[in-house]
Each structure stands twice: as C-alpha cells, then as structure tokens.
Amino acid sequence: MSRRDSVARGTLINLATRLLGVALVLAITTISARLGPQTQGAFALFTSVEGLLLALLSGFGIALARRVSHHGEQPRALVAATVLACIGLGLLAALALWALSSLGPPAYHWLWLLALGAPALLLAPNLQGLWLGEGRMGPMARLTLAPPALTLALLLGAGLIGVAGLPAVLASWVFAKVVVGVLVLALLWRGARLAAPDFQALRRELPFVATIGLSNVVALLNYRVGLFVIERMLGLSATGVYSIAVVVAELLWFVSGSLTQAVYGRIGTPDRAQAAATTVRVVQLGVAALLPVAPLLAAVAWWLLPWALGPAYAASLPLLLILLPGVLLFGGASALSAYFTNHAGRPQVPAQVALVSLLINAALALALVPRWGMAGAAVAASTAYAASVLLLAWRFARHAGWPLARVLLPGPQLGADLRAVLASRRGDR
C-alpha cells in the first residue's frame, strides 16, 4: 500500500496543522507585540532576514521532493550530500549574518543570534522535502509545529523566571529551530535514510536548486519589501504596526497553501493533462474558499487586535483592508508555482513572475510610502500580488495549452470538483 496520504486526509492534516501553527505563531507575535511596536518591528525584521536566508538555501528540499514524486526514487545518497551542503552553507551564512549585525544599521543588531544557529537552521526545511515528495503530511505537520511550539514553551518558561524582552524572544526562536533541525537529522539517521554522500548527484541538482532558491528569495522579498522600506523611511515602530497587518492578512494563505501541499505530489505527475487539471482545480477551489474567509478575518481582526495587542496597533486595521484583496487573489499562486516547479521542472517561470511582482511592489512602495505612509506599502503589495497571479496564470495557460478563461473563471463544475477532491481516496494508505 502507498504511504501517500489521500487528498482529503492530506488537506485536513494541513489545515489542522496550519491552524495550530498559526495559533502558535500568533501567540509568539502577541508576546513580542505587547512589548511595544518597536520591539515588534525588530522581531519582524529579524524573522524576515531569517526567511530570506531559508528561502535562498532551501531549494534542496524541493529537489528531494521532485526526486521522490516525479522520478520515484529514494535518494539516500543525495540526502546525505544535502545534509553536508546545508551545514557548510549555514556556516557561510553565519559569517554574513555576523557581519551584518556588526556593520549594518542598528535595526539589524540582533542578527548575531541568528548567526549562532545558522549551521543547523537549514536542515529541517530541506530534509522535509522527502516527506513532501511522498505526500506524507503527518511528518510534515510535526516539523511545522515543533519550532513554534518549542519557542512558545521557552518563552513561557523564561517568563516564569522573570526573563523577558526582545533578546528572550529572539533566542528562544533560534534555539527552537536548531533543536528541530538536529532532531530531524537524527531521525533520518535512525531510519536508515542516509547513505554515503553522492556529491555528483548533488552537483547535477545544483542548477535546479539555485533557481528554486533565487525564486524563493524574490518571492519572499515581494512579501516583505514593504517592511524594509517602512523601516528605512518611517522607523521601527511603524514597521511593527505594519508587520501585524501583514501577519493577519497572510493568514488567508493557510487555506490555499494546505490544499496545494496536500496535492503537491500529484501535481508532480509526469502526465501533463492530469497535472494541469489538478492545478486548475486547486487554484479555483483555493480562491473560492478564501472569498468568504477574507471578510470574516477582517471582522475578527477589527474586534480582536486592539484588545489583544493594545491601542497602538489599531492603525494596522485599515492597512489590513488594503492588503486583503491582493492576498486573496494571490492564494491561487501556490498551485500554479507547484505546477512549474514539480511537474514541468521549470522553477524559473515562477521566479520570473515573482521578480516582476517584486519590481512592481518595490517601485510603488518607494513612490507611495513617502506620500501615504504605511498605507502606501499596503497598496503596493496588494497591487503586486494581483498582477503576479494574473501573469502566472497566463504563463500556465500557455504551457498547459488551456484557454486563460478556463484557468481564471470557475465553471459550473466547481462544486463537483470540490466534492471529488474531498472524496478522493487515490493513494490512500
């Protein structure tokens, strides 16, 4: 029997995981935000730099997933080579982070903490590619939840002994990531999923890995460029307020992202017609699911944020309303990107689209933030998200040989597709 989870089971596991993961991250963010907008701004910048590092150097995981799902391999030798590459690249990243913390702007001073953990930070994000390729959402769920759960436990423990403030938040965050990375490596060792490292196989994957990394960095910069512009022009306190709007708006993506992750292995099938049909189904279902969720999210945030975080964050609520339309449309982008990356083996396509989106976002942010403040960054992001998903859909339609309208406009089959996806038991245990 296949070890791959069914679409229904995988989607439910992902939804539950992301809900719990979101709750944990929001709890950590609440602790940081209640220390003040300036502390929250520093935390947001710290995690954004960490995200850029992981985005640049986590393409190995996608390569492993593709070897498993598209080629049907169990690449133990490639996994071992990936482990050594992650540790080596982590050491180089540590030097760069240390230099930035010492020589860069004051807002980046605390990056020396990230430098200490960098050699182990890349392990879990890359090694989880094995389970992603197998479509096994259970191990993926545990890897997703372990770092924020451990971070929160450490923060609660620190609070009990009277240790609080930004250093405690950042140290707990980094330590949790390091512990999870080491544990994943130990599990693979015990499970005999490592062999003598095959550096030739790793070298053959490097162009794919590098393209994935550059694509991920551009995509993440697209999400975070507003934060960096606001920090430079308006300061850390404004960065903290804007970061809360971003965190809340991006909660929408856990619905569409859960569905995409659950069918990632199926999108990787060599059958183009099947891969394209699955992709369009996920795109349309994902966006349809977000339509009723977006106004509900806005209403809950309007009531909850000032009470939970304090009146200083009330200014994030209008920003949230500006961000939501673009974030909603962008919910369809994850499945389209998975099609090019896992099925077509052309990660340069989503990379090119992300670059266009980043250029739009950055140009608009630089032009609008001096005039409209934080709202200018929100307008820039929402516009860039909408433009990028339209461009990615057009590229997909050309590659798959489908009319663009069939990709963008759901027909009467949408309800039947939803029932079919939820009832699917193909590949069940």
Can I get a quick summary?
The chain is mostly helical. Helices cover 82% and strands 0% of the residues.
Explain this structure to me?
By secondary structure, the chain is an all-alpha fold. The protein has one domain (7-423). Helix content is 82%, strand content 0%. It contains 20 helices and no strands. α2 (37-57) crosses α11 and α17 runs antiparallel to α18 (374-400).
Helix and strand topology:
Elements: H1 7-33, H2 37-57, H3 59-69, H4 76-103, H5 111-121, H6 123-127, H7 129-134, H8 137-160, H9 166-190, H10 199-234, H11 236-249, H12 253-262, H13 264-267, H14 272-309, H15 316-330, H16 333-343, H17 348-372, H18 374-400, H19 404-408, H20 414-423
Helix pairs in contact: 1-8, 1-12, 2-10, 2-11, 3-10, 4-5, 5-9, 8-9, 10-11, 10-17, 10-18, 11-15, 12-14, 14-15, 14-16, 15-18, 16-18, 17-18
| Topology as a string of helices (H) and strands (E) | HHHHHHHHHHHHHHHHHHHH
Kindly give the count of domains: 1
**Number of H/I helices:** 20
What's the helical proportion of residues? Answer: over 70%
Which structural class is indicated by helix and strand composition?
A: mainly alpha
* CA-CA gap between termini: 6 Å
How big is the Rg?
21 Å
Low-confidence stretches: 417-429
Strand content: under 5%
Report the sheet with the most strands, covering strand number, pairing sense and barrel closure.
none
Number of strands: 0
The overall pLDDT, averaged over residues, is 85
Shape: globular
